[in-house]
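Notes from hallway chat w/ T.B., transcribed later so I don't forget. T.B. wanted the structure written out for a chain they're using in a teaching module, and asked if we could keep both sequence and structure tokens in one place. Agreed to drop them here.
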Amino acid sequence: MPTWRHRPLPAHWQGGQHPAFVGRRDERGALDRAWARAADGARQVVLVGGEPGAGKSRLVADAAARFHEFGAAVLVGSCAAEFGAPYEPLVDPLSILAAEVDSGGLVVAGADRTDTARRLGLLISAAGSLPGRDYEREVYDTAAQTVVAACADGPVVLALDDLHWAGAASLRLFSHLVQRTPDVPLLVLATHRSTPPDRSDLLVGAISRLSRLDGVERVSLGALNVDDVAEYLRLESGAAGHGSTAAARVLHAQSGGNPFFLRELWRDLATRGGVRALGAAGLRAPDSIREMVESRLAGVAAEQRHVLDVAAVVGENVEIALLLAVVDAAPDRILAGLDTAVALGLLESVPRSAGLLRFPHALARQAVLDLMAPSLVVRTHERVARVLEAQVGTPLRVQRLAHHYASCTALGYVDQAVRYLSEAARQADRALAHSEAAQLFERAAAVATGQVEADDLRLTAARSFLLNGDYTRARELNEHVAASGSDRQRLRAAVGYEAASFRTGEWAFVAAELLSRGLREVEHDPADPLYVQALASLGRALGYTGAHEEASAVGTRAVGLARALGDDGVLADALQACLQHPLHPTASALGVHPDLDLAHELRLVAERTGDLHHLGPSAYHRATMSYVLGDAAGLAAARADLLRTAHTTGDEYWTLLSDCATHARQFMAGEFAAAEATSTLLLERGALLDLSNTDGPYGVQMYMLRRETGGLEQIRPLVTGDEIAAQRWGPGLLSLYTELGLTAAAATLLGKLLSEDLSVYRASADWTGVLAFLVEAALALKDAAAADQLRPHLVEYAGFNLLNGPFVAVFGSADRYLGAVDSLLGRDRPDDWFASALEMDTRMQAPVHQAQTLAEWAAHLHRTGSDPALERRLTRDAAALCERLGLTRTRAILPAEVGRAGTTAGTAAAPGRAEAPRPAGLSARELEVLGLVAQGFSNRQIARSLFIAENTAANHVRSILQKTGAANRTQAARYAATAGLVG
């Protein structure tokens, strides 16, 4: 076998130094299809075109590396911009083949070895042109025959980079090779630039002629989309996951989706704090991009350079008419300058927009600005602003005037800047573009000269940040004003701070302190709307600190004052603050209907005033209480109001809460795939909304879904029962032990949790979930003492559904749990509890809850033998639901004769199931990776699923293959199934 077939790939194609490779799914698919056809013996050529930095070379390198793993020999060549030798892109590949011919390792059929090596040497030496076209053809034929010989031992990939710099002779040889190799396993991958100023007329002609041949395909690389940029950020930054979409939109706009610009921008940002640096004032172009632009502008006449400078100040979109009015030069000279900029690839025409040009990349425009003298930038902004102000009907006139006047405040245009910035911000708010509004208000505050005016603008900016879901920035601005503003501004800031903190469930103590201090500094005037609003906010803040009684008293007083004031806006603020108090664990025992009445009152106020910002709190409270009370229609109506609020106000927080209710509805209905998709969406929305606690709820939701459908089995080998409870959420770990049948570990942990002070859990929003997990463990262990200890806590929720957090988990009727507990304890009311629970489940139209109740009731009847006929009917109905919905866990509760074979452990599963061994010496992580391999995951998909590098995933796979003796991934998957490591 020739040694050249086993040559390693180029060093720069290997290792972990490459940035993340994202997107290009269609293009990769095209290359994969071409490879398949070439491997079958039909030569294929893929010409990959695009602008500089589009990722052409990376796409080809990635594909060639994969094909190398499949057994292809890879030959690599490239062109240089300067001092390129004749036949340059093919010199390196032909050198390798010539050496093999010379050594006898490669035999060209029907040709003399010495003569072949000599002719190839003429091409390789680059000594000059060949003596005559006839001899040139002979030499070209020799090159083609050598390539054909190389393909005799298996597929060959010929990767040629930067073909746009190839000369005429190189392109003739390239074309000849393509035409003379139609029926061999050869795949040619060639990259070229297709945009000015690098577009090659010679190459365009060659490509046009080659495109007529079979097996020749052109692939054009466009810009990456926002999702691709988000994926790049997740892989490059290593950030927990899903908060990269908002930053991706900014980076996409700045880079134009160009992978090179994106990479360089990220490298620059990484040195300044990563994604957080995006919020810093002043975009700057990385040095590499600035140097690229500077090199293109070298030699451009000063007058033409000035036209481009003015265009960069005008903006990314440039009207030619505006340039003619701003630039002090003859129109012909201005137009000539624009033509030069277009030829350099720095400007381009906008399709279907006569008289409009644009910068293809924001960073290229920024590089032009960075190369200008600062004084020239300021003066140009002034001239553009004055021209625009004199024009009426100009698109985006207010926004553009705001930008240009704000950029020349050093020349005395402060009033104009504040006026236009504020008006542009108000327009953005009215258009529900709260992010843009917040930034404009904040920019106006930064240029305002008066302290009072600046603080008022900061408070307004904070409200827009709040509506946009940037709660951190809203808190920061309010905290700033709370420290420096007037008395009333400080109180307004305290109210704003609390509004920005309660949605995340954090900073309640800080909010309460700011409000208390602010209230001490103003007159306690019951007729002052600000005083009443602050009082209501204080009540809510106290509720989140755990001071429930004081919170209730303060909130009730605020609502009373608001009603007396007769101001619907103040009343709405007071009502929603009261409704957002966290429900005390005994709220159901004390009665929830008064709070529900307040929620309905708030809805009426919102409808009456037309201010639907107040409808969201009412809808959310009605949604949660509708589930608790078993009101399916009320839940649906509340969810609709949440969506209506979000669509009308642009506040995505209410969309998130609507999705929370949707997830609960899908879970109850057994629509588990849809529920999983919604849960993933919630995780992403939470990250975008600056909610720091989204991973926990997501984990709980995924766990609840997996346990219902038997999905926990794949992690059984990873759970030993020896986990350190202090390093995990104890109730969740207990539930996992219970579901996996780790009896001893579950019993130990249950005893530990019950010996602790449960009041700590009772004070949290997770209490109902904790209670459900504790009760489930006691039932599975048949621990009557534990069940008896927990029963009084359950009784508090008798007649209600158990809801954990904002629809993080729905457990169904507390009466079902009470029925199972009383069955275990031998009490005389289990059937009444089960009947009550089933009525609740049916009213909620919740087949998953119905199946759970039917199964628990049937298990009770089987245990007691009290009513065989009812037991059979309940068992039949439960089994039918389990079969239809795939409820593996619930099916395991049913009496044995129904058939538990093939089901996984559930609440009543047999305890003490031993932990599966870890065969072949596989580590816990390798078992996890093996489970994904068995599901058909690629290394890239494994990396994304486990948040590890793709190289790390590949290393795990190699280790698994070595330890298990598997020759490939298919055999590894078969091994996993045989060993019982996957379902």
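Follow-up for T.B.: The first helix runs from residue 25 to 39. Might be a good example for the class.
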